[in-house]
Every structure is written in C-alpha cells, then in structure tokens.
C-alpha cells in the first residue's frame, strides 16, 4: 500500500519562542476513510484561520503542524484511468515538498531510525487495529462534518479527484476476502548521490523530519490530540452510533480513537527519536508491545460475541424445537382421542364377537357330544361287524377244510386221478398267478415312482425357464416404455416450442444436446435388446428347452411301459394312454411358444431390426453435432419431428408383441390355444394321479378276477 509522508522545512537552527517549523509524520491515505473526512474538515478550518491576521494566528495551530495536516488531507491526484504503475519521485518533481534530511542518505545512520519508517501511520482503516473483527463493507458509515465551515476550493477538487478514481478491480467489494490493505513500511531506493522514496500511487511521500522539536510543539500536539478526541466524541457517555449490532458500534468507536492515538504516538516517537535514538526505539518497542497486548482484548471480545451469537442461534433452534414439540403433542393428543374412540368401538365389537364365540362354543360342545355318541355307536357297530367277519371267516375255513378233507377221501376212495391232477394244477397255477400279480404291482410301483420324480424335475426346470423368460421380457418392456415415454415428451416439446403454427423456432443448445443424448441412449438400448435374440442368450434358451424335452421323453417312455402292462381285456389301450398323448402334444405346443419368444419369431426380432435401422439412419449423423448443436439444420429437426410418431407407434407395437406366443408368419392364435405353464403343470399332475389310480385299480381287478376264478373252479 502507498504511504503519505508529510513535508517539513529543512533542518536549521532551533528558533526561540513559538516555532514556525513543522514536524513531519507518516499517514497512509484511503479513498473511503471516515477519519479522513474529519481531518479534511479540520484542515478547512485551519486554512480559514491561516488567512486571519498575525495576532489571531498565535491562537491556532502552528504552521508546521498545519502543513502536516494539510498534506495529509490533500493527496496528489492519481491517474483516472489505466493500470497503476510505480513512479519514482524526482527531487524537483513536486512543488512545496521539503528537502529530505541528510541523515536518510546514509545507510548506517538510516538503520538507526528504522523504527520510524517500518510502521507508518495509516488513516484508511488498515493497519494493526481491530478492523479484523467485522466486515469493513458490511455497512456504509455516515460521515458528519465536525465544523460548519464551508470547504475550500482545494478541498472540493481533492474530493472530486478521489471520488473519480477508477477502482483497482472489477470484482465487487462485497466479494473481497480481505477488505482493508495492510500497512507496509516506506520503500526507498538509493540513487547515485541521494536516497529517494518509492511512490506507487502518486502520493506525498517523504522521510520523517529529523528537526528537533521544542516544548511548544509538544503542547500544541497535546491540544491537537484533545481537539481530535473531542471532535470524535470519545469522552461523551451518550454517543449515538448506528450499526447492525453492538460489536459494530464498539469497533467503530474504538477504531476512531485508535487512529487518533496512533497519529499522536507516532509523532511523539519521532520527536523523542530526534533527541535520543535509543529512547525513541525503546518507546517504539513499548508501543508495539502495548498494541500486541491490546490486540488480545478484541479477540476475546470477538470470541465472546461469537459465543453469544451461537447461544442465541441455539436458543432460537431450541425455541423452534419446543414449538414443534408442542405442535407434535397437540397432534398426538388428537390422535390419542381418535385411538380411544377406536378402542371403545373395537371393545364393543370384541364383546359382541365374544358373545357370538361363546354361543358357537356351546353349539360346538353340543355337536361334539353328539359326535362322540355317534363315534361310540360306530365303534360298537364296527366291533360287532368285525366279530361277524371273524365268525364267518372261521366258518368258511371250517367248511373249506371239511370240504377239502371230504374231497380227498372221495378221491382216494374212488381213485379219481383226474380230479387229483386238477387239484394239484390248481395249486400250482394259483402260486404262479399270485407271483405275477406281486411282480406286476412292484414294477408298477417302481415305474410310477420314477415317473413322479421325472415329472417333478421337468416342472421345476420349466418353472425356472419361465421365470428367466419373463424377467427378460419385463426388462425389454421397461426399456421400450422409457423410449416411448421420451419420444412422446420430445414430440410434445417440438410441437409446442419449435414447430409452432408451421414456423420454425430455434432450439436451445442445452435442449439440442439433451435430444441427441437421448437418441444415442435409445439406439444403445435397442442394440442391447437385439443382441438378446442372437449369440449365447439364444443358445442357452435352446439348451434349456432341449433338456426339458429329454426329461419329458423319459417319463413318457415309463408311462408307455406302465400302460402296456394294463391293457383292457378286449386289447384296447387304457384311457390314460390318450391322456398322455394329449399331454405330450400340449407340452410340445408350450415349448414351441417358448422357442418363438426366446428367438424372436413372434415378430419382436424383425420389429427391433426395423426400428433400430430407422433410428440409426438419423441418430448417427446427428449425434456428430453434439458438440456443435447450432450446426444442425432445420431439415434435420423436421425429420426428427416427423419420425417421432412413427417410432412411438413401432415401440408400442413391440410392447404388444413381447411375450406373445404367435408366429409372425401365421395369424393370431385363439385364446384357447395360448398355453400357460401353470395349466400344463396341472394337466401333468392330473395325469400322474390318474395313471397311479388306474394301475392300482387294474391290479385290484386282476386280484378279484383271480379269486373269482378260484371260487368258480372250486365250485366246479
């Protein structure tokens, strides 16, 4: 940051009485400093007093201090336009500036007074003050003049010059991270025979004056300090400051007071350093340490202020939560009332249900007693019948044994050899028939068990295959529904925004890019769907159908073997044979429908190919314009607009074809011919039950016929 140094007359003998030489000081200037307005107005009043008579001038500020304050308030004009560049001051380039003291031309002696140039005074709000506690641009400070005197022409010209300066950046000030510049030491360079200061903003920059000061200057400095403090209103107890918060008011007051102390303290250090360098350096270090000590207080104030703000925010949030809890309690209370009403209603219904249940229990108890009586009666009747059966069996065995003994005696007595042979043949034939009946029953049981296992295996395999096919078809339907919905959306957009009343309106770049991306995504989804009808996916489905056919062949052969052993007496096949043939035909039709669906022969594959070809013819050339959508012609968008309804119809047609068992080369099947796997599973289960019951029935009939034959033979 540029700094301003104030001129002072050259070093000369120390005059007696009131001194007319001025003591230089260092001040940094800013364009929007409120303290600068106070100093300007003070200078205006001083300029008026300077025009008075010599007798009245003794009651005002001496000429040197007047010159210092005047130089502070009137910075030289800066360039109104163009970038800021460093300009070096030349010795004779500025009129009215005092000559630099010789001490600053010698590096060794200049190093002893380094504390005077390292920490210059600044009135722009920068420096080591407490301005870091709040945003410098949060509010606009309202400046009020201290005196009612009218500014001079020179002050007006200076103000207009400062207000007309071009800003350092085009970024608005409210977005600055750091709002105030820092204070740097005076920058200087050594010429061939002298040492000059750097001047980057064309300000009045000179080294501090090394002319000794007397008692009158100190007294006058004290008067100036008291006057500035009084004008700033530091000692007033009821000062009115308008700020967004208390911390801003406190900072505003402390900042003004600190600037005054900084100016006076710097001048006092300069005066002491002229008399004794070490004492001035010690005083500068003491000032620096005291500034560091006071710097801790605002930080603690800021910490307390932040804690207070956090506590207030916490209180607000807790208050909001309390209000929310109150509202929630009210809602819960209303819900509790509703629950109580519902509980009363449910209690009444429960009492009614309990009464009905008690009545039903009484009826059930009566029925149970009646059932117990019936059961006892049944047991009695059963025991009686069992006794009769046992008695009849005993009688039959008795008569059979008696008849057998009588027949043997008759045969032996009469020597009936033919009857004997017939009797022995009957015994042997009976054993053979019974053996074959047992063998037939065991073979039937074994084959039926294998049939049951094979059919269950086939049913599980076809159920898994059906789930896979349905999952694939659902995925295809979802993709086509997305495509259809997006196409309808873009067609509506083109109809409402682009092609309105047969006029073309330019499409936005973002919308054009979105349309092209959707075209590419549609093409990718259609390519994925088309790949399902070729390659490994189709081969896997064909293998699954082939495995199902092999399992079907196994239980079909077992069923034929079982049914061949159970022909009717007239030689005609069993009725289960026709049911098995019908079942096999139905299963073949079901597998054929699955084959059409997985291979796309129901029209899906051809429809996807046609749809993809039409979409690719337009999307491939237009997708190349993704990064330059403005190059797309009206004809391209018109073609897309007219093709969208056709593509929508094709996608809807594909949605209808997916899952359809019809062939694309044949007319639509009747609803009765469209098979569902659940119906086929029921038919298969019914056939297994029928063949099982049929074989058992045939075995029982054979046993009865054998017994009847034995009885007839015995009667014979």
TrEMBL record:
Keyword tags: Coiled coil
Which residue ranges are recorded for the region named Disordered? 1-23
Chain segments annotated as coiled-coil in the UniProt record:
347-395
Going by the entry's taxonomy, the superkingdom of the source organism is recorded as: Eukaryota
Q: Which terms in the GO cellular component ontology are assigned?
A: cytoplasm
Q: Which PANTHER family match?
A: AXONEMAL DYNEIN LIGHT CHAIN DOMAIN-CONTAINING PROTEIN 1 (PTHR23052:SF1)
The name under which this protein is listed is Axonemal dynein light chain domain containing 1
Organism lineage: Eukaryota, Metazoa, Chordata, Craniata, Vertebrata
């Amino acid at each position: 940051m540029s700094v301003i140094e104030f001129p002072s007359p050259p070093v000369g003998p120390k005059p007696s009485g009131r001194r007319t030489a001025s003591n230089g000081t260092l001040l940094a200037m800013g364009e929007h400093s409120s303290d600068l307005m106070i100093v300007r107005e003070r200078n205006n009043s001083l300029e008026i007093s300077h025009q008075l008579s010599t007798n009245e001038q003794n009651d005002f500020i001496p000429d040197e201090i007047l010159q210092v304050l005047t130089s502070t308030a009137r910075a030289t004009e800066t360039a109104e336009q163009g970038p800021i560049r460093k300009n070096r001051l030349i010795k004779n380039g500025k009129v009215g500036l005092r000559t630099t003291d010789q001490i600053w031309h010698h590096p060794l002696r200049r190093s002893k007074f380094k504390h005077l140039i390292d920490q210059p005074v600044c009135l722009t709000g920068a420096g080591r003050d407490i301005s870091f506690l709040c945003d410098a641009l949060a509010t606009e400070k309202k400046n009020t003049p201290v005196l009612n005197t009218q500014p001079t022409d020179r002050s007006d010209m200076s103000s207009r010059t400062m207000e007309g300066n071009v800003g350092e950046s085009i970024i608005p000030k409210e977005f600055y991270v750091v709002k105030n510049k820092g204070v740097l030491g005076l920058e200087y360079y050594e010429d061939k025979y002298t040492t000059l200061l750097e001047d980057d903003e064309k300000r009045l920059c000179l080294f501090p004056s090394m002319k000794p000061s007397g008692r009158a200057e100190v007294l006058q400095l004290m008067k100036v300090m008291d006057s500035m403090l009084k004008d700033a209103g530091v000692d007033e107890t009821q000062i009115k400051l308008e700020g967004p918060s208390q911390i801003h008011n406190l900072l505003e007051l402390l900042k003004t007071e600190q600037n005054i102390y900084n100016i006076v303290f710097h001048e006092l250090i300069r005066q002491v350093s002229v008399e004794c360098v070490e004492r001035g350096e010690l005083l500068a270090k003491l000032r620096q340490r005291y500034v560091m000590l006071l710097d801790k207080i605002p930080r603690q104030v800021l910490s307390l202020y932040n804690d207070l703000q956090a506590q207030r925010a916490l209180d607000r949030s807790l208050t909001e939560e309390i209000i929310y809890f109150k509202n929630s309690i009210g809602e819960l209370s209303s819900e509790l009332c509703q629950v109580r009403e519902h509980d009363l209603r449910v209690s009444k219904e429960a009492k009614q249900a309990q009464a009905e249940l008690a009545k039903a229990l009484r009826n059930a108890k009566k029925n149970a007693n009646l059932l117990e009586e019936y059961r006892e009666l049944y047991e009695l009747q059963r025991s009686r019948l069992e006794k009769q059966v046992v008695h009849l069996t005993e009688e039959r065995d008795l008569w059979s044994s008696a008849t057998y003994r009588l027949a043997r005696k008759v045969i032996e007595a009469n020597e009936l050899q033919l009857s004997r042979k017939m009797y022995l043949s009957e015994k042997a034939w009976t054993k053979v028939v019974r053996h074959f009946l047992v063998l037939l029953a065991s073979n039937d049981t074994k084959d039926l068990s294998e049939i049951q296992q094979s059919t269950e295996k086939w049913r599980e395999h076809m159920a898994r295959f059906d789930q896979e096919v349905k999952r694939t078809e659902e995925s295809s339907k979802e993709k086509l529904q997305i495509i259809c919905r997006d196409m309808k959306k873009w067609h509506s957009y083109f109809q409402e925004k682009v092609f309105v009343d047969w006029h073309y309106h330019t499409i936005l770049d973002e919308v054009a890019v979105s349309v092209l991306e959707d075209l590419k995504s549609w093409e990718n989804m259609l390519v994925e769907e088309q790949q399902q009808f070729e390659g490994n996916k189709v081969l896997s489905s064909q293998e699954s159908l082939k495995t199902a056919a092999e399992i079907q062949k196994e239980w079909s052969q077992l069923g034929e073997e079982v049914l061949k052993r159970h022909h009717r007496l007239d030689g005609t096949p069993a009725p289960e044979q026709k049911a098995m043939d019908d079942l096999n035909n139905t299963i073949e039709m079901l597998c054929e429908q699955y084959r059409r669906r997985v291979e796309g022969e129901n029209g899906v594959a051809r429809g996807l190919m046609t749809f993809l070809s039409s979409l690719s013819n337009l999307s491939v050339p237009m997708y190349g314009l993704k990064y330059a959508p403005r190059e797309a012609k009206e004809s391209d968008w018109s073609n897309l607009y007219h093709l969208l309804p056709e593509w929508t119809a094709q996608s809807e047609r594909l949605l209808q074809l997916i899952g359809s068992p019809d062939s694309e080369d044949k007319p639509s099947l009747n609803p009765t011919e469209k098979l569902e796997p659940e119906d086929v599973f029921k038919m298969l289960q019914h056939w297994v039950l029928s063949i099982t019951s049929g074989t058992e029935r045939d075995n029982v009939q054979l046993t009865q016929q054998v017994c009847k034959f034995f009885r007839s033979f015995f009667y014979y």
